[in-house]
Amino acid sequence: MKNSKSKTIIVLGSFNTNNGITTFVKNNYTSLAEEGFKFEFINIANSAPATELAEIGKYIQVVQFKLGILKHITGLKSALKQARQHSTTIHMHLDSLHNFIPVVLAKAAGFKRIIIHAHSDQRGQYSFTKNAAHGFGMWITGFLATDYLACSQNAADFFYSRGTQKKPTFKIIINGVELDHFRYDAKKNVQIRKKLEIPLNTVVVGHCGRFARQKNHPFLIKSFKIFHEKMPNSVLVLVGNGEHFEKIKCLVKNLKIQDSVRFLGYIDNVAEVQNTFDIFAFPSLYEGLSLSLIENLANGTECLISDNQSPESFQAPTAHKMTIANETSINQWAEKMLFVSKTTANKNLKEINSQGNIDVLRTKGFDKRATVASLEKVYEN
Question: Do residue 162 and residue 234 come from a single domain?
């Protein structure tokens, strides 16, 4: 083991249970810990904190921002001061820079190396005030931080100026997954469909993600309703939970399609359930680079993806770029579902697509091993 691998890295972020950043951290930092790195997690999540990170390293939960800004800042200062005694390096996994307080406090605490990791692209989504705060965060991060990482070019453009992106410590680290773990499994398809009482000849449209504005569930539900009217032998399977869960259930009921929509909530066997998907519909308003999307591409699923997502999202042959610009787009998604559903009955084709997509994704750097190796290199420098 190299000496550099025995050092401690402080890892800060808004680690909610089952959000994309948390999944990224759990997937990769478990492997990094096995390589000898030590981690201390500082969680600034405002709800549903991912306390399971304590299984990977030391865990500190900061007083939530919603309980009072002064309490939050005081708690964060204390956590950073304590962590600074164990390391001079802090890695911040963020989805925005409108809250730049952690960066300022980390610098004040004496961290010599501040690594910022951009995980989202929310351009066009903010109010004037929030956008101004994010802009100031970009500016202050540009000279307080030392390293600038991003999961995609879109995420980089949201977080960093062109000047920052020209720095030698700027790097894009693609969100990799264990591609073979998500390879299509015909037996699992049969088993899970039986468990969910979905016939083998039924077209399954799937979605995995938090029930939040970002994921654009209303658009998905309306598109599926139109598709279902033309393809009655179809169901929509929704995996995940979140603040809009009940709201979306009400929408489904109001549209009278509740018998054809399955709400699975949070589940541990996502990879198994994804084998049942014929179509993965992903009309997000914004993304950095979705792990769920990469997983479904590896599974060989026909993926309908909103065109505002990062170019890295469209690498595999079964990735279809779709607009979500207006109400007309809802019909276009329904028509595309109908079109691709004509090929999904051939499960042998999905198996072929799965292998083909995995080969492409691995070549493009979407393998977890490549991501872990990139993080190792950052920490060893």
Answer: no
